[in-house]
Design a protein that fits this description.
about 200 residues, alpha+beta, five-stranded mixed beta sheet, globular
Length: about 200
């Protein structure tokens, strides 16, 4: 058995003990990847163009409430952020659904995890998810058509407007609720930064 799996089992046992003692019924699972630089010729290390260096690109899951690391998976440096993320996340979600029937789970990730496989896994397991979407022209256009001005708008002051909308791209099976914001700098007539 690879040492990383032994490590993950120990992490899970530690977390289970902590969650039982705290009677924790809410998990906020933050999934993320990071760069681990390497020097020399290490097995499975490879060049990561985003970071501009050779290394590994591990994926990690933390519980945001306690800050405890729940799982880690070592990967070559040249894999994309979300590669196999759903299969890495699945056993953890199943484990904590069995851990407590009242466990509320939220999965959070940055735009690298904005993939249908993550959405589908969360839907399948009854978990909520909050994932940042990548900036794109279609979403920007939808948001900018929601912007409102009135006679009392002070264009000399910066302003941010927040919107809720249903949004769907071709690869999604259904639309999802999206929160977006548009910002106008002071002295400008137009909103300039959509997120």
């Amino acid at each position: 058995m690879p040492i990383i799996w032994v490590h993950n089992r120990l992490l899970l046992r530690l977390a289970d003990t902590m969650f039982k003692r705290r009677n924790q019924q809410i998990l906020i699972l933050d999934i993320d990847s990071t760069q681990a630089d390497t020097y020399g010729k290490q097995e499975s290390a490879s060049y990561n163009a985003h970071y501009g260096i050779d290394g590994f690109h591990p994926i990690l899951i933390f519980d945001s409430i306690t800050g405890i690391l729940l799982a880690v998976k070592q990967r070559p440096g040249n894999v994309y952020t979300s590669r196999d993320a759903d299969e890495f996340l699945r056993p953890l979600l199943k484990h904590y659904q069995k851990f407590s029937c009242d466990m509320n789970i939220l999965v959070r990730g940055d735009s690298g995890f904005a993939t249908p496989t993550i959405y589908d896994l969360c839907e399948e397991t009854g978990c909520q998810f909050l994932v940042k979407l990548k900036h794109n022209s279609r979403l920007t256009d939808l948001v900018q058509h929601q912007v409102t001005y009135d006679d009392n708008t002070d264009f000399s002051m910066a302003e941010t407007q927040i919107f809720e909308l249903d949004y769907q791209v071709e690869t999604w099976l259904k639309p999802y609720w999206v929160a977006a914001q548009d910002t106008r700098n002071g002295g400008s007539l137009f909103m300039t930064t959509s997120q």
